[in-house]
């Protein structure tokens, strides 16, 4: 955990916490469109993300038993909305908020080996999210809302990267034990990605309990 992000969250005054709650409630009707803009821009600046969503869509074509539990763009939009719902509901429970965000980063670490997803993507996601959310009308209504969202997004970005980096190092150490031939590595990566995308077919609350 980054001490800076944790301390900034814990130091958030009650007025900013209330501004978060109020502005998020006002953002909810347009949240789906807003989150789509964030992910579409992320796909542009980080082509690896677009590749992952494309492969997820292919998995949905072949494994369609649970169509609403995939790793596609639309499902990620729904998960992002639920994520902010849960995070803002836990804004006074710092340790739960940290664990919640870090767990999301950890769950994505497998993508580092399988398709080149790297920690810088979290930074790019944070920058895009801050720009889009802080420019929205509900957040721009008050100075406290803008400050609160900047603090929250910086906290989320830091903890996502922290969880991702730690888990990615574990996968890296495991993969360095054996060095198979290149064809075998590529087949294993493709199989691993497909398996992981199928494993991601789960309800949000099964991985991030309140």
Automatic annotation (TrEMBL):
> InterPro entries recorded for this chain?
Globin, Globin-like_OT, Globin-like_sf, Globin/Proto, Mb-like_M
Identify the residues that the record assigns to the Globin domain, covering every copy: 11-165
Q: Which SUPFAM superfamilies match?
A: Globin-like
Q: List the keywords (alphabetical).
A: Heme, Iron, Metal-binding, Oxygen transport, Transport
What's a Pfam family in this record?
Globin
Asked whether the UniProt record includes Transport among its keywords, one would answer yes
Q: Name one GO molecular function term.
A: metal ion binding
Which superkingdom is the protein from?
Answer: Eukaryota
PANTHER family reported for this sequence: BLR2807 PROTEIN, GLOBIN-LIKE PROTEIN 9
- Would you tell me the protein name for this molecule? Globin family profile domain-containing protein
Protein source organism: Acrobeloides nanus
